[in-house]
Amino acid sequence: MKLKKLITIIMSLALISSFLGCSSKSTNNSTSNSNQEQKQIVLRLSDTHPDGFVTVRADKEFARLVEENSNGRIKVEVYPGGQLGDEKSVIEQVQFGAIDLVRTSISPLAEFDKELSALMLPYLYRDTEHMFRVLDGAIGEKIFKNLENYKFEGLCWFDAGSRNFYNTKKEVKKPDDLKGLKIRVQESKMMMDLVKALGASPTPMAYSEVYSALQTGVIDGAENNWASYLSSNHFEVAKYITTDEHTRVPEVIIMSKITWDKLSADDQKIIKDAAVKAGLYQRQEWQKDEEAAKNQLKDKGVKITTLESNSEFQDKVKVLYDEYGKEYKDLINEIINTK
Q: Are 253 and 279 in contact (CB under 8 A)?
C-alpha cells in the first residue's frame, strides 16, 4: 500500500515538474519575443516637399544617423511629397500618435502655440546667424518645452531662407520704391499688412496663378525665397529682386510626444542627437542651394539689389509689432537683444 502511494506521489511530482518546465520555457520565449519587439522600432517621418529637396535630404540624413547609432535597431522611414497627407492634417496625426514625425514650418504650429507667431514678425532677425543664435539658445529650448503641452516633442531647427520682394517694373532700393506696386502675397493678414505698411498694394492670390499674373500685369511683383523664385520661373517675367529679407520662418522636425514617451532614455538621446546633426546638415545644404540659385539667376540676367541695411524697411513696419506682438513684447525684445 505504501509502495503504491509512493509511486503515485513520484508520478505527481514528475507531472508538476514537467508542467513548470513548459511554463517556464513558454514565459522565456514570450519575454524574448517581447524584448525583440521593443528593440525593433520603425518610425514614420512625413515631409510635404518632393524627393531631392533640401529638407528631404536632411530627413534622410536624420534617418541614416538614427539607424547607424542604434545599430539598425531603430529605423526612420521618410515619406516625401506629402504621401502621408498635407502639412496641417499630418501635424494633427502626429499630435495623436498616428504618425511619429513631421518636418514642418512653424507657421501651422502657431495655431497650437500662439507664441510662435512672434517668431514670424517681419525684419525680426538681423540675419540667418542671428536667427539660429536665438533658436539654438534658451529661447528655442523654451519654445520646444512649450510644444510639449500640445503633445509635440521638438527635435531640431531647419532653415527656410528669407523672403524677398521681386517685381517686373524697377529696382527697389528703399521702401518708397514699392509705393503703388501691386504685390502678390499669401492669404495672411499679417503679410497683407506688411505690404500695406511699405506703401504697396497687397494682392492675395494662389501661388499657381502668380506667373501668368506677373506676365499679364495683373500684379507687379511678389515675394518668396531664392529657391522658389528660381524653381517657379518667376524670374523670367520679374527681373528685379531686392534682398530686403523681410520674413524668416524657421522650420522644425517635431515628434509625437506619445511616441517619444514610449522610448527609453537611451533611444531618446539617439534620436535627439541625430536630429540636431541633421539640422546642422540641412542649414549647410540650404546655404549651398541658395548660393547656387543666386548664381543661376545672375547668369539669367536678373537684377539683384543687395541692401546694406534693411533698417528703413524695418522702421516702416514697426506698427505691426504693436498689433501682432503686443502679447509677446518681452520675447520680441529678448530676440532683438540676442547677440
A: yes
